[in-house]
Amino acid sequence: MATYKKGILGGFIGKVGTVVGSMWKGRNVMRSLPAHVSNPNTPAQQAARARFALVGRFVATCTGFISVGYANHATDITAGNAATRDNLANGCVQGTGTNVSLDYTQVSLSSGSHINPASPAAVQGSGQTIDITWTDNSGISPEVLASDVVMACLYNATRQASTYDVSSATRLDSSLSVAYPALWSGDEVHVYLVSRSVDGSRVSPTLHVASITVA
């Protein structure tokens, strides 16, 4: 916005060409017209927005876990943006148009090629916990160590909420119990497992272990 005392037309109010004149605190002011933004909201645009919003909501509920799982693959963007990119591309979004949903067995909470523990399983634990077990497969390659950290994430799609543990268990431990809120009782919970080296330089792909209707 610019003020002026005398223009070639003198003071004016209204639109002239690409500028708008008006009075502000007794002074003549002139501003440019706002740029025209084309937003036809086509079906394709609506579909793209629906997919992005769906994945974005999921990623937002698992931010803490994803920040570790994507620590090595988010050098130029945030871990959350890297996870959003991957989940938009990996086929976990099902449906067409704006009628879309997530296949929770295919989502990515981590990115890497480190080897996960063998034979993972998950069952209802005592109280509000899920007990996760696996077989220690350390030594199957030089980089697979007993000291590798095993991380677990529980995701409740009904409540769009998660809880997770990224530091308590190692590959050697072969088990981990993760607590969940009592208000989740009766909901379906997806259980995910990811392993990483102690220094975080190696991370495994996301492993969907089970879906459990919790007590």
How would you describe the overall organization of this protein?
- This protein is α+β, with helices and mostly antiparallel strands and 215 residues long.
- The protein has two domains: 31 residues, no CATH class; 171 residues, Immunoglobulin-like, CATH 2.60.40.
- Helix content is 17%, strand content 36%.
- The protein is built from three helices and 13 strands; from the N terminus they run E-E-E-E-H-H-H-E-E-E-E-E-E-E-E-E.
- Strands 1-4-3-2 form a four-stranded antiparallel sheet, with no helix packed on it.
- Helix 1 crosses helix 3.
- The longest helix has 19 residues.
- It is elongated, with a radius of gyration of 26 Å.
- The model has no long low-confidence stretch (mean pLDDT 90).
Produce the secondary structure layout.
Elements: E1 2-3, E2 14-16, E3 19-24, E4 27-32, H1 43-61, H2 63-69, H3 79-89, E5 93-96, E6 99-102, E7 118-124, E8 129-135, E9 149-156, E10 161-170, E11 175-179, E12 188-196, E13 207-213
Antiparallel strand pairs: 1-4, 2-3, 3-4, 5-6, 7-8, 8-11, 9-10, 9-12, 12-13
Helix pairs in contact: 1-3
